[in-house]
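Researcher: Good morning. I'm working through a list of sequences from a screen, and I'd like to move beyond sequence-only analysis. For each chain I'm collecting a predicted structure so we can compare shapes side by side. This is the next one on the list. No need for commentary yet; just the structure.
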Amino acid sequence: MLNRATIFFLFVLMVSSAMGQTGLTVGYHYGHANPKEVNRVIHAYNLRNETILTKNMPAIHGFRGFSIGFQGKTGRNSGIDLM
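Model: Good morning. Structure tokens for this chain:
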């Protein structure tokens, strides 16, 4: 995971080099998945640590949440989008 200083540096770099198109994106994302292998690992973790866990880790069925991003055009035919 990027730390705040790195994200700020990338943001300043993108704003200073943007040519024509910059934007802020705000949205809600949802992704449905069938992560059988990840759920198997979660189940094994719950079984192995059942004596110390106060609540079992739930299985994963999808990913959802709000997102905030920045878009910047960095060249003639290229761009970047951070979320």
